[in-house]
Design a protein that fits this description.
heterodimer, A: alpha/beta, Rossmann fold, 12 helices, 44% helix, globular, B: 325 residues, 7-stranded mixed beta sheet, 5-stranded mixed beta sheet
Chain lengths: 336, 325
Amino acid sequence: MLKTKVKPKTASKTTSKEKAELIELYRQMLLIRRFEEQCNVAYRQAKIGGYLHLYIGQEAVAVGFISQLQKQDRVVGHYRDHGYVLALGSDPKAVMAELLGKETGLCKGKGGSMHLYDRDKNFLGGYGIIGGMIGIATGVAFKQRYMQEDGVTLCFFGDGSMNAGLLHECFNMAGLWDLPVIYIVENNKYAMGTALEHHSSETNLAKRASVYGFPSKQIDGMDVLSVRAEAREVIKHVREKREPYFVEAITYRFVGHGAADITDPGSYRTKEELEEWKERDPLESLKAILVGDGVISESELQTMDDEIKAIVKEAARFADESADPPPDALFEDVLA
Amino acid sequence: MAQMNYRDAIRLALIEELDRDERVFLIGEDIGRYQGTFRVTEGLFDKYGPTRVIDAPISEPGFVSMAVGAAMEGLKPVVEMMTWSFGILAMDQIVNHAAKIYYKSGGACPVPMVIRGPAGPGKQLAAQHSHSLETWFAHSPGLKVVLPSTPADAKGLLKTAIHDNNPIIFMEHPQIYGVKGDVPEDPNFKIPFGVADVKREGNHATIVTYSRGVHLSLEAAKQLAEEGIEVEIVDLRTIAPIDMETVFRSVAKTHRAIVVHDDWRFAGFGAEIAAQVQEYAFDELDAPVLRVAGADVPMPYSRVLEKLAVPTEQDIAAAVKRALA
């Protein structure tokens, strides 16, 4: 496992503003965790259909990066995308309603789990085709450069995308034209059920991405404080220097590739490996720091958890009770 | 009105739009310093510079998807496909992304962009540079597909395309870049999509066509007129959206329809026209709807074989006579 390179500050020496930020990081990760757990329940109840990919285990990557964004920045992601919209502040009710295919959903029930969009929160899509989001994000960053804005674009994708030709075409153009895009590969070790060493000729992905004329680095994606510190540095660099950046966040998913995978850990990884990674649960690590340093008490955390469970329960109720899209919606939004 | 060729009319539309709106930019392979493979963008790099006329690497999926992302954020990319045969490389970006994002985002993200370039047989360009494939794109909801036949149509339709809020497939034809015609000089001149143009009136048979097929049909009409046969030529101009009303009106007059296109015959666009005419105008027909289309083969290089693979005015004249027999 990758060692943390940036030492997180201990919380005890921090100001009250910083303490509030730390608590907010935890709150966001917990919201994602509880939301995903509810999704899993709704999937077992056949309320959510199709493909459902949960973000459990990887929360620190989305939360750490998104915490450092400004309002002119944009985010594009892959199909394991619930965490991004929740971290960006989308209404959990509208997200859950979308997963249930309801007209009150973020995309009026037309996108589903893999295709969330929330323009108001700067999320320009989850994409179901490996590599597809990289072209979109490159174009979003192209616009920021073309219009001489100071925004940056975050592009999240999985290690499977490293083998898409489109990725290498886009890295070349982004390097050629100095586009302010941050490519973040969430290396969770598996492209579906195919391990990194079985799908990538070079398993150090930061090295693999290092030839396009922009910086690349590996970071620990399991420690949200480390992710946040790295994100702050990388985003500042891209915002000021106006060039791309590649970040390999080493992470792990604690659940199957999709909710349809009923056996865990699955045939392609061992129970021991899964358990070993669960010891690095990003929520547990931050919780230990917060409680250990007296930033928050166990009972306050329990109150927070209760509040989040209520938010998720309310989202589930809202989604359940929302109407299906009317038949007329079928032919709406085909053309603008 | 000014006399100019099809190529210059397209360039004029690009110039007017580059001047009108700073969000419009051009991107494609060798469109800048090289001046464009078919010289459509000649002089534009010198006039507008590398920020607005961008030489792209040979990465069709890359620059098309980059244009999609830029369009979602409000730019107006005009992408040149060196030939539409290469459009297949970017099929995922066009069909799975550009065409679907507006719908799957529940109407939140329009994708206003144009992809333009030559489609169809040139002269001995062989198997990988000669096919037009408009049916592949017309088949996909979320795209508009434009195939102009004259300089005025090319200019007016390209202007409409750049003003549109959707992904537009704009197919020019390599064999008619040099064709001259009158083009309105008014910079506000635009031609709406989904409005067919009757390029010739006649009472005996209706030819439904577009792009190069219009010119072939006009030649065939001259031959047929000498034998007392007057054909009506309906130039669809856009096949998505499509103006079937004009087709039905013409068929109600002539009671015979022949579809002409360069693209392959099997499951080609002619099949869609034939299906709609029989479905909605069956009682008007005095003969089966016929198709004059490209042979169902990869384009051969040999001049002799190539001539057999593409429709000719003789093929059209023969089909009209068969419909009248």
